[in-house]
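quick one, 366 residues, struct below
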Amino acid sequence: MNINFGSNLKKFRNDRKLTQENLAEFLGVSFQTISKWERGDVYPDIATLPDVAKFFGVSTDALLGVDATETEEKIKEIIEQLDGIKSEGDPKKAELIQKAISEYPADFRLQLRWMANLMFRNNGKDYVQVRSKVQAIYNYIQTNCTDDTIRFVARRYMAQYYNALSEIKESGYTFSDVQSLVEQMPKLRDSQEFCKSFLYYQHPERQEIIRDTLQEEIAILHHGLHHYGIFQLDTPVEERIKIAEITLKLNELLFDDGHYGKQWLVVMYLHGYLAAFYYEIGETDKVLWHLQKCADLAIEFDRLDKISVMKSTIFNGKKFDKTALGKPFSASEKMMRLMQNKYPFEEKFKNSEAFQRIVNSLINVR
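---
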């Protein structure tokens, strides 16, 4: 993308009959900075660019000299690429977002994704190191963005980030910082999902919209159940098993055709958790049964067409695009890594014939 910021800035300044010194005084920078901007040696940072545009009464696109329609198409392509890479730890994602930010520094959607990438890449090892940058991006979004959706998502990310920092000694953050952000978020009854579930009866696409909403509400319900009991290490394992089995049965009721749509990974994980829990109490037969279910579901998912049709009572006829869970994405490879490396099985069990047979079934799935 060609950025003509320097020449445009000079034009706008001359149209106002301002010297570099005058403009520098208005913007609170040095006249040397204005000179460097106009020569194209450097560009303003993301926090300053909107202020320059507002001063001249123009959009940031006009100030940068870019075509809004062409820019929007390119940004949407980049966002699709970024969202297709589910892992923030993927080096390709970091490289792509850095390039995108350098080309489109004023786009809040890209800033939001940059914020997430800084926070969640490298398995959280960079939490403290990226603190000032994450805070700057968050402040920029909250101050300048008029899209509430982006602002709320940024706030949710920041609450997660503060929560992680609060667990690091001497980070300067406590849970009260987390709580203050969370309490600024809208309640569930003020959400799009809640309103769509009962206000869209007259919409021509009401069925599809309400079913999309149901999927999101189901995902939220599962998230709550997982954190209520399954992820609570101080909860007795027998109770964690009961909560996981209830959650699994709930999925089987809602998706009674065995096609779990966006919940496919959740169901596989539930079987994985149950395998780990039963291993803890020494019920080997149940461990192997749940691991086999993990493998069967992963293989079934990988053999689905890119677009498949659900046939459950609630979602009958709804199309599911499996790339929504990541592209490229192999459930078989993911489950194999979890079984071999993450689940707390001893080497003796992992070397057993029964375990190896399950793992081998996941190799070279087509």
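The beta strands are 307-309, 319-321.
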